[in-house]
């Protein structure tokens, strides 16, 4: 049975393109079906991650903001 992994990326405090770059690096290490959760404070990340997921065919499972921290959960295609 294949075990899927979950990764966490803390990109709080980074400005564009830092969070997307950190996400890209982690996704390169992940396998298909793995989940990557990333937390950022750059408000432009919401738009960036939606576009990036569409472009790369990865699935954006959730995108939420709380107390200035944006959390996105992405499933690798």
UniProtKB/TrEMBL annotation:
A UniProt-annotated Pfam family: TusA
Origin: domain of life: Bacteria
Gene3D superfamilies: TusA-like domain
Residues covered by the UPF0033 domain: 8-76
Family annotation (SUPFAM superfamilies): SirA-like
Record-stated family: Belongs to the sulfur carrier protein TusA family.
Name under which the protein is recorded: Sulfurtransferase TusA family protein
Lineage of the organism: Bacteria, Bacillati, Bacillota, Bacillota incertae sedis, Caldicellulosiruptorales
